[in-house]
Amino acid sequence: MTWDLTKIFSDDQEFENAFKELEEKLKYADSYKGTLENGPEAFLAALEYLLNISRQLETVYVYSHLKNDQDTSNTTYQALNARAGALATQADEKLSFFEPELLSLSDETIWGYFDNEPRLEIYRHFVEQIISNRSHVLPKEQEALLAGAGEIFGASSNTFSILNNADLVFPVIEDANGEKVQLSHGIYGQLMESTDRSVRENAFKGLYSVYGQFGNTLASTLNSHIKTHNYNAKVRHYQSAREAALSSNHIPESVYDTLVEVVNKNLNLLHRYMALRKRLLQVDQLHMYDVYTPLLGEAPISFTFEQAKDKALEALAPLGEEYLAVVKKAFDERWIDVVENQGKRSGAYSSGTYDTSPYILLNWHDTLDHLFTLVHEMGHSVHSYFTQNNQPYVYGDYSIFLAEIASTTNENILTEHLLETQNDPRVRAYVLNHYLDGFKGTIFRQTQFAEFEHFMHTEDAKGTPLTSEFFE
């Protein structure tokens, strides 16, 4: 029920060997500075050196962060992850010369290199992407300064992660059977689906009472995080942090504006659904702790992890044998860390890199929602697997703008499968309820998050102090 990270490094000593090897290779970075003007072969050598360093660094970093996420309170792996982060910052600083130096060359020179060196052709799109970003790349001395501050820029995010996953202790409350349960991120999600309103209320208030004790700290970390985004956007000559964030995938801001506009025009659908929820739950006022409980009472269906594996294979069968073979590979080769543990990073994700398996972190409970989480994250991992096995390293990843397509498609396929195969009206109604809640979360809630982010960044840019009082 745990993932097998020995496929990355057999043990921590092998990690240390790779770490030291990478440190040694980074010492040669300066020998490539100032060489891009020396002809196509020198240009190719510098480009491939940069990509090779990035490739090895990603493997080192993935191992360290997966080890850390198993137990974020383990100081050994906190240190390992911190060292990998520091090495990444060092590499960014050492390699920061490349883009400014490339952009100092004329287009005629750059494309002349491609005409005269066939081995460069595979990198044409990669170089085109850099050139398209010309107005936002700084002189190499300034790029080096920004790269060297990478750990500082990430400090507030790291602080929140450790606080949230390792240090916060949530209260013990009673479940619907009157039994004492230690509240955790995973247990909280389960209790929010309880049909006992007092359990939901106590879980909600218990969790957020702890966060409330750290309101000033959390506001400070978020404030610093936002200031980092705004600062980087400003020095790179973007009009806003939003423009900077979208530009990495060449997405115009009008796409964001259209999303917000269309969703807001259809808020009546959300309000109609919430009114239905209020009526079916028979409550005078709908609270946040009423938003996730099933509308029709106790869940009539549940899945152990072993049952969920079988159900996932059944549901995803329309995607074909090649797809299912990768899903089976994920199960058989232990890509998945399943069980919730004290100190384990909360939530779920798919993570890996070009030379590793696309691992999945879960915090499993035997619910329908966690079956959906499994197929969602499997969508990411299979997407990554096919990308890595059909593209060269330089294109061996996909943009965040496309990332959720594979995962949400899997969720919809699972919904369709359950509706086709389940005859019990209660189960079918429960699945439809889950689908509506998922739609609400994916469309309305995520857009709300996007609006909140943009508002916070805009307020900070205007000079508004982002205190805990302001957030309230």
UniProtKB/TrEMBL annotation:
Domain Peptidase M3A/M3B catalytic positions: 191-469
Q: Which UniProt keywords apply?
A: Hydrolase, Metal-binding, Metalloprotease, Protease, Zinc
What EC number(s) does the entry state? 3.4.24.-
> Which InterPro entries does the record cross-reference, listed alphabetically?
OligopepF_N_dom, OligoPept_F_C, Pept_M3A_M3B_dom
Name the cofactor(s) required for activity, per the record. Zn(2+)
Q: Which GO terms describe its biological process?
A: proteolysis
Gene Ontology molecular function? metal ion binding; metalloendopeptidase activity
Q: Which organism is it from?
A: Tetragenococcus muriaticus 3MR10-3
What is the name attached to this protein's record? Answer: Oligoendopeptidase F
What family does the Swiss-Prot or TrEMBL record give for this protein?
A: Belongs to the peptidase M3 family.
Q: Where is the Oligopeptidase F N-terminal domain?
A: 101-170
Cofactor descriptive note = Binds 1 zinc ion.
